[in-house]
Here is the input.
Amino acid sequence: MKHLTDKIFLIGGMGAGKTTVGVKLAHILHYKFYDIDKEIEKATGVDIPWIFEIEGEEGFRKREQKILRKLANKSQIVLATGGGTILDIDNRHLLINNGLVIYLKTTVEHQLRRLTHDKRRPLLQVENRDEVLSKIMSEREPLYSSMADIIIETGDRSITSVLNNIMKVAFEVQD
Here is the structure.
C-alpha cells in the first residue's frame, strides 16, 4: 500500500462526490484543490459542453491529458479527476505513479439522483440516462477499482463521514 503523499487524486464516476469531497479534503490537509474540468475550462476559456460539441470527446480527452500532466507535477494538491480521465492508459499510469489514488465509489442509482438536474454532462444529455450511465460505469468500474490505493464508498453517507473515512484509511496507510 502506498504512503500518504503530497498528491491525492480522486477518481470515480460522475456524481460520486469528487469535487465536494476534494474541496473539503484539501482544506483539512492545507493543500490546494483542483478540479480537472474547471482547469480545462480556465485554460480554454470555454465550457466542457462546448468543447464536446466542437471537438468531440477525443478533443476533450487530449485537453484533459495536457492539464493532467501539468497538475501531476504540482505538490500538496488534491485533484478531482473527470469520470473518464482513467480511460487513457497514460493517464492511469500518471495517476498511479505520482500520488495516492482514492476511488470514490457509488451506485448508478446514487449518481442518477445527484445528477438529476445537471445539464453540464455531455455524455448524459440523452433520454435514457440510466442505461447510458450503467453502460459507462460497467466499462469504467474495473479501471477505477484496479488502480485505486483506497476505495471509499460514498452512497448515502454524509460528507463528514466520507472525509473521516478517508483520513482514517489514508493515515493508516502511512504506518
